[in-house]
Amino acid sequence: MKIVFLPIDNRPVCYQMPKMISAVNKQIELVLPPKNLLGSLTEGANVEGLYGWLENAVIGADAIILSLDTIAYGGLIPSRRSNDTFEKIKARVDNLAEILKRSPAKIYAFSSIMRISNNNINEEEKEYWSEYGEQIFKYSYDLDLNGDADTDVPPEIIEDYLTTRSRNFNINKLYLEYQKIGLFDTLIFSKDDCAEYGFNVMEAKKLEELGGFTKTGADEIPLSLLARALRTYINVHPVFLEPDEKHLISNYEDVSVEKSVLGQLELAGCNITDEKSADVLLYINNFRSRQGEIVMRRDTELFSGEWEIPALPYMIADVRLANGADNNFTDKLFAAGLGDNFLGYAGWNTTANTLGSLICAMKYVWHAKRTNMFDENAFKKFEAVRFLDDWAYQANVRQELSEPNGDITEKMSHYEDIVKKQLNIEFTAKYSYPWNRLFEVEIELN
Length: 446
Description:
There is one protein chain. It is built from 14 helices and 15 strands. It is of the alpha/beta class. The chain is globular and about 60 Å long.
């Protein structure tokens, strides 16, 4: 099966992760663009180069996974920063449509609803966000909540911000028109870093009224679509480790943990069943009272229960904290051992990020095992990276660092020994910071 995959940008979770997931299944030929054509933190993608790549790549494809922001704006971050006019972006989108119309492949696409960050960090926003970000967020929140709002943000800043939002919203409406003529098999509008109220929530409702499908999350959605493209249906039973708290809402999201779980399973093409009918159990290490946040030093009550190796095939979504693992839980997990039924672990960033990536990997493993096309070594390498990133680095080593300088191999060595023992694998690891920030680390195993 040939799958063409156009990522959001060149981050490891966007570029490396789909490649590692597809590698566990020998039936899959995943075709990615050259990494140097994709955008980074400071530069947008080479859109013209990507068009040339795409025209050739789609030949003979069975499925095409598209991050539409990459083609329209040069990436997810440029979609918030770009000053290109609606007409210029529409011309790119129309060109894309002509390429796709010539392909018989199933097309799975997503476009973001422009986020509203709730802080004054302008690393991924326009320059004025460093001074007015929190105020713009409050203005947006109050306007949606109350129908009216005042702000001290200069009028020209508000005008620029709303002009950018309007342009992106109208491009999303254009995608809906293409969906109506059958161009997309699946089209998702993502709600990235979403609060309960705001311009992005208002726009999501309008897109839904027009027939669009919206989903909380962003970076994991191409992986959810990658899972959906593998037309194998798996019966999954969710098991919440804090069943009385599954109604709570995670950080950066606007739906409960339970709704996030069910929505991610459905988007990935899984059947949600009771335990008796389940092929796979999805364990969710969810939170009590509120989700913790490792980076922002937001505490929460950590896992205090017991853990035994499940009798059925299982996977684990560790979402008690955002941006990394729950050390109390992983201690119990490693003490028990992973067992022969282990299908995956994730604790990456937001609840939606964790779930989408985890379910995608499980689906490719499950399908590969049942078609005798499973690459066990590729699976172990992928899981080693997940444990080293989500647990070892994010929840532990990163907390000792103030900036992305120096080699962290020595700090990671203790954790590497644990991962090697758990997965029965040998490797040497190389660590780097592709975006020159602590938020993401790239881990290469040899």
